[in-house]
Every structure is written in structure tokens, then in C-alpha cells.
Specification:
Layout: E1 3-13, E2 16-27, H1 34-47, H2 52-59, H3 63-71, H4 78-88, H5 92-96, H6 99-102
Antiparallel strand pairs: 1-2
């Protein structure tokens, strides 16, 4: 089952109230987003045969957190994204953004 959550936001700019709608997430099983699932696959692929313990010690994250990132049930914070990308010798964009997002600008 999929669910799209949309939030109505209001912002005051120069005394005018502006309304817009923000797509919060496309939710699938257990609340993870499709993006998180894809990121998890990319992280697991980047780790390859390196043990989880080795990665955890190198970047300063718990094994439980790394497993959650790789399963797509939790997204790493920006600082951790940078640490993981550097450790794996990849760019943040390669690991954490869809290919179409990279070329849309």
C-alpha cells in the first residue's frame, strides 16, 4: 500500500501570506520512502565485502544505525552522508540522489 502525504504550508513574505503545498513523502511498507530504499541498496553495494564493523569503526556510527541505513528504514544525517561517501570513495550525489535528480538542474 502506498500513501502520499501532502502538507499545506503558509509563509509570510513582505507582509503577504503565501500558501503552498509540500509533498512530504511517498510512503510504502513500514513508513520508509522509495528514496530511502534505493539509498539503502546503494550503501550496501558500496560496502561490498567490507564488514559492517569495519565501516562503523571508520565512520563513527553504530552497527544498528548502519543496518537501518542499508535497509532503508532510516536516513543518515548530512554529516554521516559525507563520512560514508568519503569512506566508500564516492560522491554524496552518487550514493544519496537519484540519477534523474542529478540531471534535472
Amino acid at each position: 500500500m502506498c500513501e502520499i502525504s501532502i502538507k499545506n504550508l503558509t509563509k509570510s513574505v513582505d507582509g503577504h501570506h503565501i500558501k503552498w503545498y509540500c509533498l512530504i513523502a511517498l510512503k510504502v511498507q513500514k513508513g520508509e520512502t522509495m528514496e530511502q530504499r534505493e539509498i539503502g541498496k546503494r550503501l550496501k553495494l558500496a560496502r561490498g565485502s567490507i564488514s559492517k564493523e569495519t565501516v562503523c569503526n571508520a565512520v563513527g556510527v553504530t552497527k544498528r544505525s548502519l543496518e537501518a541505513y542499508e535497509q532503508g528504514t532510516r536516513a543518515p544525517r548530512d554529516e554521516m552522508k559525507l563520512k560514508l561517501a568519503n569512506y566508500y570513495g564516492k560522491s554524496v550525489e552518487e550514493l544519496f540522489f537519484y540519477e534523474s535528480e542529478l540531471h534535472s538542474e
